[in-house]
Amino acid sequence: MSKTNQINIAVIGAGGVGRHFLTQCSQLLPRYPHASLVLISRSNRSLRIPSFDHTISLSTWEQDLAASEFPAVSPSEILEFLSSAPGKCVVVDNTSNQDVAASYPAFLKKGISVVTPNKKAFSSDLGLWQSILESSDRGNAAGGLIYHESSVGAGLPVISTLKDLVDTGDEIQKIEGVFSGTMSFLFNNFAPVEGKGGKWSDEVTKAKNAGYTEPDPRDDLNGADVARKLVIVARIVGLQIESIDSFPVQSLIPKELQQCRSGDEFLEKLPAHDGEMEKVKAEAEKRGKVVRFVGSIDVTNKQVKVGLEEFEKGHPIAGLKGSDNIISFYTKRYGSNPLIIQGAG
């Protein structure tokens, strides 16, 4: 392998997301002989190739990592390790760790590219967002590349499409959509276009049992996940949003259940509050509409909000199925017909 053409890949996080990523690597890397997996790090240990002269085995990495005597490594240690590598380097952060996110500018300034689904890097402190941009190739010719497509819309091309619109001079006027696969699944079953639907508490329990929610469903129902995605999208179009506390975010957690000690206790007590959500559904049905949990960004008026909205039954947002996401871009170029991205989220 020519070391000048070598691409060294360091993976942070080898849990659920990381394991799936490494499975993809096992299928893709054979096509790219100059790419080498040189480090895998998780919370309690790491695996690395100090000499950079071969690659970690993608067929035995789990066993090799379990047997490794290397302790866990910090972002600064990974930076030092990669700084001595020949060729180019890429860090793939599969975590949701704030400390790792805060290290992105240091990697980028060294010309190390970063690929990540970690929303915290792009939706927390506005100063970190600005530092990431300034340190990357967008603000520094010698900086690394930054890719975070899956921080919004899972595998859908939301961010790349939005950046292309902005970079080619289109004027973004409004962005609206269902940004959460969990919320999509819940409301498509609770308030389907054809009517009826299940009890709210039953649908929340179904969603948890099917793996759509976090272990504690309140982490989805509080609206914070959707809010973080809206912060990212709003910042891409130029709005200086400080944090998810900068705009209205509607929580679907009854006040009486906010202090439940666990997700199980929450689900146990939720049926007593079904009437509240039934009333919301019934009010929408009286108007011939359905209710959905959406995020919207009025770019022109610099307004962002997250919460329940009513839609005509023929509206694209109303007709979603399963856990699909849908994001509509209303722009000057596309006029009254928005550019719509829809698919599994």
| Element-level helix/strand string | EHEEHHEHHEHHEHEHHHHHHEEEE
Q: What is the general shape?
A: globular
Share of helix among residues?
25-40%
Low-confidence stretches: none
Please tally the helical runs, counting DSSP H or I stretches of 4 or more residues: 14
Tell me the structural class.
Answer: alpha/beta
Distance between the termini: 38 Å
What's the pLDDT, averaged over the residues? Answer: 95
Structure overview:
- This protein has 345 residues and is an alpha/beta fold.
- 35% of the residues lie in helices and 20% in strands.
- The chain contains 14 helices and eleven strands.
- It has helices spanning 16-28, 61-67, 75-83, 98-102, 104-109, 120-123, 126-135, 158-167, 181-190, 200-209, 218-221, 224-236, 263-269, 274-286, and strands at residues 7-12, 35-41, 46-48, 88-93, 113-115, 146-147, 172-178, 289-298, 303-312, 324-331, 339-344.
- The strands form two sheets. Strands 3-2-1-4-5-6 form a six-stranded mixed β-sheet. Strands 9-8-7-10-11 form a five-stranded antiparallel β-sheet.
- Helix 9 (181-190) packs across helix 10.
- The two termini are 38 Å apart.
